[in-house]
Amino acid sequence: RILDILQAHGCRLARPGEFTLRAVLTGKMDLCAAEAVQDLIAAGSEVAASAALKNLEGGLKARLSPMRLALVDALAELEARMDFPEDELGEADSAPLLRAMENLKGDLNGLLASASMGQRLTQGARVVLLGPPNVGKSTLLNTMVGEERALVFNQPGTTRDVLEANWELEGVPISLVDVAGVREHEGMDPVERMGIEKAKQEVLRADLILLMSEAQSPQEKEFERLLNRWRVPKETPCLRVYTKMDLLTEPVANLNGVYVSAQE
After folding, report:
1. Predicted TM-score (pTM) above 0.85
2. Rounded to a whole number, what is the distance in angstroms from the first to the last CA of the chain?
3. Count of CB atoms situated within 10 Å of the CB of 204
4. In the 3-class helix/strand/coil scheme, how is 108-165 assigned residue by residue?
5. Which of 122, 134, 236, 238 could staple 156 via S-S, CB 3.0–4.6 A?
């Protein structure tokens, strides 16, 4: 074969990413674009691919270039006065430099604030379904992904380990995380305790927590105590989800959240 002949005469196959590496080393591509190539390959949705293409075409570079120029100008001003103090450069005016640094700080903070969204586009947002046993977490997960990913049974404590399912919402990749039902009783076996500990770990790294309870027993205060005891960051968004609405005999007032029924 032609490939074998070429390799016999000293040719070799390109390594993964070698052409991108050569483009960076020769100055034809910057690191922002090189990372965008990897993001494009790993994109799990159309929105993530679109964001990666934008950066590949220079989107991130266009935001970073003015910041870099502002830093270079400030550095040049400072170094010139330190290296050539005998020249007649005049007195240094710190006010413009301070204003420039404050503006730069604001721009950098804005860029950092958008980084978490970019991370969610490439890695997916983690949405944890949290609630007591047999509240309908696995049923909701199965309904959302459109297939039987989680085992559902009317006996409490069916879910002991962490179960993940990939989902997509308006082009954004989502990792739905079903965890063990949280409860406390004296007869809890060690396996169930381990499942609850894993649930805690998932809650602490969630981008969004679905706090699930039956509409007949909202468990508002129980959730508040649980999140405080687990030291869940206050900035982690939580959405109340009230399940089994088809079993509700009369309306429930003063419940802010989403009402669902697996049957309907």
Report:
1. no
2. 62
3. 14
4. HHHHHHHHHHHHHHHHCEEEEEECCCCCCHHHHHHHHHCCCCCCCCCCCCCCCCCEEE
5. 134
